[in-house]
Design goal:
Strand order of the largest sheet of chain B: 1-2
Largest interface: A-B, 70 and 77 residues
Oligomer: heterodimer
Structural class of chain A: mainly alpha
Largest sheet of chain A: none
Helix content of chain B: over 70%
Number of helices of chain B: 26
Number of domains of chain A: 1
Low-confidence stretches of chain A: 91-112
Shape of chain A: globular
Chain lengths: 250, 617
């Protein structure tokens, strides 16, 4: 088969693929069915009272469907470990945090090479870093009241960590941007999350039940706790991954 | 669930320890890696693996009396309202899938102690994968099923990529792309069903659909086909199997065993929960059953053509899952409230279970042999048995394991594969699937005769080259050794005399012996196991199997005679396959063009066929 014929065949296959998929998918999204209301009405009537969170999104993802959130957290965790493993096997960076054989990886480069560092970058990121961190903590801790929560706050914290790593001087060491500490925070937060999830079993409110239910606290305390743990885990994990990627350019 | 002063674990909580114990193990592994060094870290990692992989057996023992008496542990996670919460359902089926998963995962982990991979990343991701298997088995909520499949998927991409083999990254990437895109379609289907019913739990969806005029009509059919196609992609049935051979062939052997043994079956049985109760479920199952029969025969022909030993095994996994899907689809089509449906589902699960044992064993024994021999080419590798002996295996455990597993997959009595294949074909007798599956069995026999040649002693003509093969994976160094005129035995192979291999022999031997014993024992106890599984699966429909039903008679003259004929036909097919014309034909099959876009095209075609089928029913 000539190159041209092969190319036409290839394009025809792609076109067929797109056509078939579109034919199946379009009716789903153009459906004129009335929207279902049962979950909405239920949340409107009971969401605040049952979970204590006025941001009903966090009532859903850390209350009613916290088990799904645990799963998504694990997806992120595995994705990060996988990325780090691939980066390290790629021959560049940061094996130490993940216990990979150091033969395949060089020492972690915590700073940009001199050529790409500029005064401007250093000053701006160094000054902004702490502010971004504080904002991240705010988003994380106020997730039950306003849009935000552990995942969003964690991502902001991770960008704060990246700013600090970019802004730190070549010879300065920063305990928040050191891979060892980030890995420690991440693994400890994961263990805490599992403990929080199963502590309801011991206190009698069941798996993923609120362990603080009988202690006279509002139910929202559990959501705040989970938000904080998830925020730490996501922030440390993503921050670690970004620092690993920064270390590539030598 | 009130705290009554005395510490009691409710069934609801004990069921979730099946998920939480491996997760806790993963957390411990990560903590050990982050905070401890050296011997302490290794010790804690080992403890964490024990907790995560063997602790759940306690929970399985604890919940066994419940499921045995036909009860189902069900509820909403966190005791929320069922309107918005996540419902779960732990019944006999979930118990069986968990038992299957923890058996294979335990054996695979012991194997990995000897032959790798090791390290905290592997350990934690392996535990997370096992936890996701347990969660998938008992979920009764469609969004939770999505999350479980995502966790299962991402863990297996990382595990496949953890192999050192060339191409493993690419295999993992194409697996990732295909299954991640199929999950987008799953989400679209989920959206469609939610749009119609406003519910995410299986029972809520089916009740709302039944209440709708026309039971949801076209949108329900399309949404259901989107969800089923995405899960079928994970199960690797026709025509959605293209990602599997690379991923399973290039993964580390221990991971291949789990992927082939457990990972492709769990989504199938999890899907049966929803297919049983939604309208159109039976019709979809019927088509999937047909696809299963086609999968069994097509994949075995491709397997017969393979050159790489592990890739050959991977195609056999597809073929064997075809048997399972065929029986599973027929069972759901008949309905689990009929006697025949129950028997077919039992046969499907038993074949899935036995396949997990013998295919796990095949991956481990072939992996060990080809690693020691330094070659995976079925056509050139010979004398693997003597290589194994040279590498310090005093008892030929690997060879025996291979023989047992190959006889089991070829359905030779009294091994377990014989029992489950008889059970499947017995229930399908008289239909066209019966003949297709029998033909596939002949192909399986031929293919394993071909594979077993790697253990035959090498003919004199290539003796020198083949004995040197252990010393050098690549041909150039073989050539230099021959030039220098050294006798083969003096050149020590990199894999044969290091003490690492000797130390690796123990866990490798133990894990293989465990699985081999399980194959033999489950073959001998097949009638009893049949009754056991039948009764556990019955817990939902409660047809009331009070005494253990031994299933179809195994050793009738008819069955034994048929086996004899099939073995003979297998030999004939093998001779044909290695003849000049046969090998030319097979090389055409082997070298057919396989493009990345083909994976997506086959998904689109499979999806639209299923969709049209459901719309026309």
């Amino acid at each position: 088969m000539s190159g041209r014929a092969r190319r036409i065949l290839f394009l025809a296959q792609i076109a067929l693929c797109v056509l078939l998929v579109a034919a199946v998918l379009i009716p789903v999204f153009l459906s004129s069915m009335p929207w279902p209301l049962s979950a909405r009405d239920y949340l409107q009537a009971n969401g605040l009272a049952e979970s204590g969170a006025s941001n009903l999104v966090s009532a859903i993802y850390l209350g009613y469907r916290a088990f799904d959130t645990l799963g998504e957290t694990i997806v992120l965790l595995v994705a990060i470990s996988g990325t780090i493993a691939i980066i390290a096997h790629g021959g560049a960076v940061l094996a130490q945090g993940y216990g990979l054989p150091s033969g395949t990886a060089s020492e972690p480069a915590r700073h940009l090479p001199p050529k790409t560092r500029t005064e401007l970058l250093e000053v701006v990121t160094g000054k902004l870093g702490p502010v971004v961190l504080v904002f991240g903590v705010y988003v994380m801790m106020y997730g039950h009241l306003s849009p935000g929560g552990g995942f969003q706050g964690g991502v902001v914290i991770a960008s704060g960590i990246v700013f600090l790593a970019l802004g730190s001087r070549v010879d300065a060491s920063n305990s928040l941007t050191s891979p060892e500490n980030l890995v420690r925070i991440e693994s400890a937060a994961f263990a805490l999350l599992l403990l929080a999830a199963s502590s309801g079993i011991i206190s009698g409110s069941g798996f993923f039940g609120n362990p603080l239910a009988g202690a006279g606290l509002t139910p929202v305390a559990f959501i705040i706790t989970l938000n904080a743990i998830i925020g730490l885990k996501v922030g440390a994990g993503l921050g670690f991954m970004c620092i690993a990627m920064l270390g590539r350019g030598k | 669930m009130k705290f009554t002063g005395r510490f009691t674990v409710s069934p609801e909580s004990s069921v979730f320890s099946l998920v939480m114990l491996p997760l806790l193990g993963a957390a411990l592994v990560m903590l050990a890696k982050a905070f401890l060094k050296g011997r302490m870290a290794a010790g804690m990692q080992f403890t964490a693996m024990l907790v995560g992989l063997f602790g759940p057996w306690l929970a399985l023992l604890y919940t066994f009396p419940l499921v045995w008496s036909g009860l189902t542990v069900e509820g909403v996670i966190g005791n929320w309202s069922g309107v918005v919460g996540i419902t779960f359902q732990f019944d006999g089926l979930a118990w069986l899938i968990n038992a299957l998963g923890y058996t294979v995962a335990g054996a695979a982990w012991i194997y990995s102690l000897g032959a790798g991979p090791r390290g905290p990343v592997f350990s934690s991701v392996f535990l997370i994968q096992t936890a996701a298997l347990a969660a998938t088995a008992m979920t009764a909520d469609i969004f939770n099923l999505f999350v479980c499949l995502e966790v299962l998927g991402i863990a297996s991409y990382v595990l496949v990529a953890s192999s050192e083999k060339n191409g493993a990254f690419l295999a993992s990437f194409s697996y990732l792309m295909v299954s991640a895109s199929s999950m987008v379609f799953f989400l679209a289907g989920l959206f469609g069903l939610y749009r119609l019913t406003g519910s995410l739990s299986y029972s809520g969806i089916s009740q709302a659909l039944l209440a709708l005029p026309d039971q949801g009509g076209g949108l329900a059919a399309i949404s259901l086909s989107l969800i089923i196609a995405a899960v079928a992609m994970r199960v690797a049935m026709m025509p959605l199997y293209g990602w599997l051979p690379d991923a399973h062939a290039l993964a580390p052997h221990a991971v291949s065993a789990v992927l082939s043994g457990v990972l492709i079956k769990t989504p199938l049985f999890a899907l049966s929960r929803i297919m049983l109760i939604v309208p159109l479920g039976a019709a979809a199952a019927q088509l999937l059953g047909y696809a299963g029969a086609a999968t069994a025969i097509v994949a075995v022909l491709v397997a017969l053509s393979q050159k790489d030993a592990k890739r050959l095994l991977a195609y056999h996994s597809i073929s064997q899952i075809g048997y399972v899907v065929c029986a599973w689809g027929a069972a759901l089509d008949l309905g689990m409230d009929t006697m025949a449906g129950q028997h077919l589902m039992t046969a499907a699960f038993l074949h899935a279970f036995y396949h997990a044992l013998f295919k796990g064993l095949l991956f481990l024994s072939i992996g060990t042999s080809t690693d020691r021999a330094g070659s995976r080419n079925v056509y050139t590798l010979r004398g693997a048995a003597s290589t194994l002996r040279q590498s310090g295996e005093r008892l030929p455990i690997t060879l025996l394991s291979f023989i047992i597993a190959a006889l089991a997959i070829s359905a030779i009595p009294p091994l377990n594969g014989y029992a489950s294949k008889i059970a499947i074909t017995y229930s399908l007798k008289g239909s066209w699937q019966y003949w297709v599956l029998s033909a596939a069995s002949i192909g399986t026999i031929a293919s394993f005769i071909k594979l077993s040649r790697i253990f035959w002693p090498q003919p004199a003509r290539i003796r020198l080259m083949a004995t040197e093969e252990p010393s050098a994976v690549f041909m150039p160094s073989v050539a230099t050794a021959r030039h220098s005129g050294l006798p083969a035995q003096i050149v020590p192979g990199p894999m044969t005399d290091t003490s690492a291999v000797k130390r690796a022999n123990l866990p490798v031997g133990i894990s293989q012996a465990m699985l081999a014993l399980a194959c033999v024992a489950s073959g001998l106890a097949a009638p009893w196991l049949y009754g056991f599984v039948l009764r556990l699966l019955d817990s939902a429909a409660s047809l009331g199997f009070t005494s253990l039903n031994p299933g179809p008679a195994l050793y009738t003259a008819d069955n034994l005679l048929k086996t004899l004929y099939m073995v003979l036909a297998g030999f004939v097919l093998f001779r044909l396959a290695v003849s000049a014309l046969g090998s030319r034909l097979l090389s055409l099959v082997r070298d057919r063009h396989r493009g990345f876009h083909g994976l997506f095209l086959s998904f689109a075609v499979g999806l639209s066929v299923l969709c049209v089928w459901l719309l026309l029913v």
